[in-house]
């Protein structure tokens, strides 16, 4: 499946629709705060050097695996709510997909949330580092499974 | 005379920017870099449109114009800081200036076991070059602690160690705390008691200071000062190492190549005198011209007035922030000296989250460790939000910032 603009997984499309009704950036960030509580977390006891996403201002950790059906699963947590909210959205986007699809999943989906200006790629952006890391892990899992 | 803020702001095209959200830009990240007035932008454009040429190399008209403008810029800049032009070595900024000092002076004048005294308040650019030197030649690094209650250097510790120190590197004005260190006292103690009474060599990281302070370099009696043009309305990628009369002769060349030699053979060369000995390769010509234009622009103001204005905004903002429940302000803004930087943290809202909400309202502030991680550790935190003011900021902007911040905190808690 070639994911991208106009063709997102249904669970992500729902989120995009929700955001598209909101014009105020403050409100969008608040929505991400709400999403943060829906994130399937990686409990703090399991945070370690291996799970740590480097290059984040916030402390962010992810753990990627395949479920019994060989589908991709990511759990994660961050101390910054907006990063964790984006993780929750990312979970909706990629969890349950075959790992090969996750490994090339376009990070541009954040643009569809209307938050791209302040979430655009830069070193201070925890989310981008997180997502790049997740894609790399998906590639490894896909290779391991093959 | 007070500053005519309306006229000042009119010189900065970027300050009239309005975001698609309808929020006007409120630029409060001046400690990271200041905005550029159109006079600076124009000077650099003029250079590229009318005079672009390499310097020091050809006899055609453009080359003569470019060389003259480049060297005249050095005179303008060195006059501003109060030293002779040949002792103002162009670099890409404060970072390169300190690295130049460590390589060109440190390597040939310090040796294994010599004590290099730094402080816990240093920006990484006045820490890492000395760590590298310690690893390479075995100098010993010591650090003056910061008192986390008063946000000042522990001067008793400084006095206790200075006798053993051969070299002192100290940040003039902190980019995190806005605190101006007692640099006069530091220089005096270093010169009278440093290095067993023979005097220690002092470098001041003046990156933040130059935004509002002309330094008076030779009069200060300091050996080195490092600074960046972009913190004082000039272009990025430009700065200088200012060097005293006593030290310039002790420096050995560092980068080798074109423009820094007098004559070259296959197996050896003779070198230009300073400053060109230390400026190998095609230099930052437009940037030097832009920096001089920034100084020409700043020359219309009384810098004490500029400093008082900036500090007034910082003091007011710090006082307002302290009234907000959950906010801690790091640094002391009550004194008469210091910069426009106000660092703060909310006790539950993450600094990165807060920065996004501030940005959504058009407020540009800095978030992070500000390249001063040892200082952060001493303060027991890993990051702060930082609002930093400059001469074009207004009290209305400061108040709007505080109001917006309060609104965000109310909304989220
Ligand atoms: C105190 C201090 N030192 C050094 C620097 C480094 O300056 P530059 O990045 O221009 O080399 C900065 C700039 O952030 C600073 O604030």
Throw out a few tags for this protein:
A: 146 residues, mainly alpha, Sufe protein. Chain: A, 6 helices, 2 strands, B: 413 residues, alpha/beta, Aspartate Aminotransferase, domain 1, Aspartate Aminotransferase, domain 2, 2 domains, seven-stranded mixed beta sheet, four-stranded antiparallel beta sheet, 14 helices, globular
Number of helices of chain A: 6
* Most extensive protein-chain contact, per-chain counts: A-B, 17 and 16 residues
DSSP strand count of chain A: 2
**Percent of residues in β-strands of chain B:** 15-25%
Report the uncertain regions of chain A.
none
Major sheet details of chain B: 7 strands, mixed
Structural class of chain B: alpha/beta
Q: Main sheet of chain B: which strands, in order across? A: 2-10-9-8-7-3-4
State the helical fraction of chain B.
25-40%
The succession of helices and strands of chain A, N to C, reads: HHEEHHHH
CATH architecture designation of the largest domain in chain B: 3-Layer(aba) Sandwich
Query: Main sheet of chain A, how many strands, which sense, barrel?
Result: 2 strands, antiparallel
Number of strands of chain B: 17
> Pairing-aware structural class of the strands and helices of chain A?
mainly alpha
Stated plainly, the CATH topology of the largest domain in chain B is called Aspartate Aminotransferase, domain 2
Strand content of chain A: 5-15%
CATH homologous superfamily annotation of the largest domain in chain B: Type I PLP-dependent aspartate aminotransferase-like (Major domain)
* Average pLDDT rating of chain A: 87
The CATH architecture term of chain A is Alpha-Beta Complex
């Amino acid at each position: 499946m070639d994911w991208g603009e106009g063709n997102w997984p249904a669970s992500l499309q729902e989120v995009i629709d929700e955001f598209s009704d909101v014009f105020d950036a403050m409100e969008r960030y608040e929505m991400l705060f709400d999403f943060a509580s829906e994130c399937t977390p990686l409990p703090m006891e399991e945070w370690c050097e291996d799970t740590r996403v480097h290059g984040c201002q916030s402390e962010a950790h992810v753990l990627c695996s395949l479920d019994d059906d060989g589908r991709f699963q990511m759990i994660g947590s961050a101390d910054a709510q907006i990063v964790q909210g984006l993780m929750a959205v990312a979970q909706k986007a990629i969890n349950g997909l075959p790992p090969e699809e996750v490994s090339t999943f376009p990070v541009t989906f954040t643009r569809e949330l209307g938050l791209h200006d302040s979430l655009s790629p830069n070193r201070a952006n925890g989310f981008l580092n997180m997502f790049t890391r997740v894609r790399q892990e998906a590639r490894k899992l896909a290779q391991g499974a093959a | 005379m007070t500053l005519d803020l309306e006229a000042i702001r009119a010189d900065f095209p970027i300050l009239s920017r309005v975001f698609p959200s309808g929020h006007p830009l409120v630029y409060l990240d001046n400690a990271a870099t200041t905005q550029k007035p159109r006079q600076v932008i124009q000077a650099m454009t003029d250079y590229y449109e009318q005079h672009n040429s390499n310097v020091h190399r050809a006899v055609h008209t453009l080359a003569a114009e470019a060389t003259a403008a480049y060297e005249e810029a050095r005179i303008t800049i060195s006059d501003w800081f109060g030293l002779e032009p040949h002792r103002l070595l162009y670099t890409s900024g404060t970072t390169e200036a300190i690295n130049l000092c460590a390589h060109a002076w440190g390597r040939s004048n310090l040796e294994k076991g010599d004590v290099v005294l730094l402080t816990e308040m240093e920006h990484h650019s006045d820490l890492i070059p000395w760590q590298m030197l310690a690893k390479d030649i075995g100098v010993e690094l010591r650090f003056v602690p910061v008192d986390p209650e008063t946000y000042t250097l522990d001067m008793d510790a400084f006095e206790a160690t200075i006798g053993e120190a051969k070299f002192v590197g100290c940040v003039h004005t902190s980019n995190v705390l806005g605190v101006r260190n007692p640099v006069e006292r530091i220089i005096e103690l270093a010169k009278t008691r440093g290095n067993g009474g023979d005097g220690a060599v002092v470098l001041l990281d003046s990156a933040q200071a130059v935004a509002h302070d002309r330094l008076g370099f030779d009069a200060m009696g300091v050996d080195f000062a490092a600074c960046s043009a972009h913190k004082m309305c000039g272009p990025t990628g430009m700065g200088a190492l200012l060097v005293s009369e006593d030290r310039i002769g002790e420096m050995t060349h560092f980068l080798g190549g074109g423009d820094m030699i007098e004559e070259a053979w296959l197996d050896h060369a003779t070198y230009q005198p300073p400053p060109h000995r230390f400026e190998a390769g095609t230099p930052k010509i437009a940037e030097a011209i832009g920096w001089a234009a920034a100084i020409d622009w700043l020359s219309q103001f009384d810098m004490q007035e500029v400093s008082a204005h900036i500090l007034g905004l910082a003091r007011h903002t710090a006082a307002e922030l302290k009234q907000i429940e959950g906010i801690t302000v790091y640094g002391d803004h009550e004194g008469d000296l210091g910069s426009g930087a106000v660092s703060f943290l909310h006790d539950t809202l993450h600094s990165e989250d807060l920065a996004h909400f501030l940005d959504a309202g058009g407020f540009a502030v800095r978030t992070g460790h500000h390249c001063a991680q040892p200082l952060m550790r001493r303060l027991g935190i890993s990051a702060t939000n930082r609002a930093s003011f400059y001469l074009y900021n207004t009290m209305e902007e400061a108040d709007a910032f505080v109001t917006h911040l309060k609104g965000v905190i109310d909304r989220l808690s």
